[in-house]
């Protein structure tokens, strides 16, 4: 096998997060349902953005956040995702490169603008998201650079990109290139509603193409249509080589092969400020661990520490260099 | 194999619990360390009992509580444990028979008085225990009725009885009778300090005689001298047929054979009043489940429900008929 150029190559939505702290009243006034992520069109994006007012803009997107985490942990990460050649697109590219992630997907010269996610954080640290996917949905198989995928130990796919048909094709192409080069493929289920929309396709992808599956409790329960976490755990057993299942403050459970199961605690957090990015950074920690020779339990503990860092402040990308936090774990 | 007469026969300390709600100041005044269980002699028992004043007396003892739980769930339970022929001994026997547990161990006619456990419950629902073991420690191999052990699908041993050498002999005798009759043997580690005192003996017993092991997080970590729950989980893997490991509000993890692992949530509790007996009732639920044809995950869920009932009120025995709570789980 050729030498790896990257530990992980993430493929996902290229989104700029627009974050604002607001009260529950703001949610009610704008008819937003707390804790959900809903997709909006360009007009609605403009309307909510106008109502939001004062806010902070940070490059985001689930797999992109994870790649930022891998880089912060000291790993080599690449990202593939589509922006438009507009101001937000420039900002996205600048931010992700600044943190050390390789990013060279060509910006679209026409069509929808760069994607943005309007995130309202209420005082209970819950996030309510309104996402305009714009250009990020226009990723197509031509954007998958075979040299990046072949050069990455793990190619990491973001479930949110399952909605646009061409992006789904891009996933299959990337999986085939990765496996053809003897590499591994990871998938995050991203969102329980996303799982509801694509349950059969996700099941096929998991059994046919995925070596490492990431899901939170509600996503894995949705995938297998069961009503308890333990039932989901039994259902996923044997479906892929590794499954890493997150449970918020209950920590995570990692399965490997026929009989290896690890129950990993959440890392302590002084104050939960904003849970945006917790799952993304957990995945970053596990992916970093798996590509840097750590055993599965330690990979899980690194995931817990990375997730704890990101929920201790606003925004879905680490503010501390994560490599400094994982020395003794 | 002969027909079973009992689902479970428990062997443990026959103790009367003396419960009182007091503030943290009471603990400080009497030099008691919150959350611990310490052993005291007859004189100290009289002194603390005097300081305690107003209190409630309820028959207790760890394995005896579990047998009360099995009976409350609708199972057939027997108990073997030693009292003195005094008032507390009469009360113990009357209480345990009232709830439907078969109990016929002969009371000692001389020697130490019936055991009592002085339990101070602070406003945070923590319990601090001072135990005078008295007559309960004088259990000897002659008290093990072979007909009861042979007639029980599972013989359940309480780790606390590992301190007196004759009681330990009684355990080995009971295990050999049980296995000779094709029955199963279960053990609860009871207490992390108890594990510290008898680590090597417990490890030998677990590997040589025990089919079903119960332990909480600190006990199993002490048994294998590791610093995380997951490390303990890996260490116990393969050491006995079934391990049921409790984690307070984090629920429990049950292992079976080479690769079956269940992660079971704690059952919801409106208000935690007194955690005394949580582990005992969890064990009752699992033992009832295993001897009544339920799968391991459901046995664990029954354990969670039984534990949730007992921590919702003062005292270590159920106040509700547990069989009425488990219909749909």
Question: Could you explain how this protein is built, in words?
Answer:
- The structure is a homodimer of 329-residue chains.
- With 329 residues, chain A is an alpha/beta fold.
- Chain A has a domain of 222 residues: 3-Layer(aba) Sandwich (UDP-N-acetylmuramoyl-L-alanine:D-glutamate ligase).
- Helices cover 37% and strands 22% of the residues of chain A.
- Chain A has twelve helices and 14 strands.
- In chain A, the strands form two sheets. A nine-stranded mixed β-sheet of chain A has the order 6-5-1-9-10-11-12-13-14.
- In chain A, strand 13 and strand 14 form a beta hairpin.
- In chain A, helix 3 crosses helix 11 and helix 11 runs antiparallel to helix 12.
- Chain A is globular, with a radius of gyration of 18 Å.
- The two termini of chain A are 31 Å apart.
- The model of chain A has no long low-confidence stretch (mean pLDDT 93).
- At the A-B interface, helix 10 and strand 14 of A face helix 10 and strand 14 of B.
Cα separation of the termini of chain A: 31 Å
Distinct helical segment count of chain A: 12
**Anisotropy-based shape of chain A:** globular
**Low-confidence segments of chain A:** none
CATH topology name of the domain at 6-11 and 62-89 and 137-324 in chain A, in short, is UDP-N-acetylmuramoyl-L-alanine:D-glutamate ligase
Number of distinct beta strands of chain A? 14
Order of helices and strands of chain A: EEHEHEHEHEEEHEHEHHEHHEEEHH
């Amino acid at each position: 096998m050729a030498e790896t150029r990257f530990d992980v190559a993430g493929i996902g939505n290229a989104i700029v997060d627009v974050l604002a702290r607001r009260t529950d009243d703001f949610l009610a006034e704008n008819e937003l349902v707390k804790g959900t992520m809903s997709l909006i069109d360009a007009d609605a994006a403009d309307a909510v953005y106008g109502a939001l007012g004062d806010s902070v803009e940070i490059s985001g997107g689930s797999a992109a956040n994870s790649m930022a985490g891998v880089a912060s942990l000291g790993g080599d990460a690449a990202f593939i995702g589509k922006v438009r050649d507009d101001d937000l697109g420039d900002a996205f590219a600048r931010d992700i490169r600044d943190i050390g992630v390789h990013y060279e997907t060509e910006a679209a010269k026409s069509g929808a603008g760069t994607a943005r996610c309007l995130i309202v954080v209420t005082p209970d640290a819950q996030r309510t998201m309104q996402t305009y996917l714009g250009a990020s949905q226009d990723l197509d198989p031509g954007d998958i650079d075979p040299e990046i995928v072949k050069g990455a130990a793990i190619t990491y796919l973001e479930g949110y990109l399952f909605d646009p048909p061409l992006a789904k094709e891009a996933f299959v192409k990337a999986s085939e290139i990765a496996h053809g080069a003897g590499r591994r493929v990871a998938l995050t289920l991203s969102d329980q509603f996303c799982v509801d929309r694509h349950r059969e396709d996700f099941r096929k992808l998991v059994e046919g193409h995925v070596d490492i599956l990431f899901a939170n409790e509600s996503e894995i329960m949705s995938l297998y249509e069961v009503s308890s976490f333990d039932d989901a755990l039994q259902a996923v057993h044997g479906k892929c080589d590794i499954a890493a299942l997150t449970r918020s403050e209950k920590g995570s459970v990692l399965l490997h092969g026929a009989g290896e199961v690890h129950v990993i605690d959440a890392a302590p957090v002084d104050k939960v400020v904003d849970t945006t990015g917790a799952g993304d950074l957990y995945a970053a920690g596990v992916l970093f661990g798996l590509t840097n020779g750590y055993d599965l339990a330690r990979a899980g503990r690194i995931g817990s520490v990375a997730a704890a860092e990101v929920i201790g402040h606003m925004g879905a990308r680490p503010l501390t260099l994560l490599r400094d936090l994982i020395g003794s774990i």
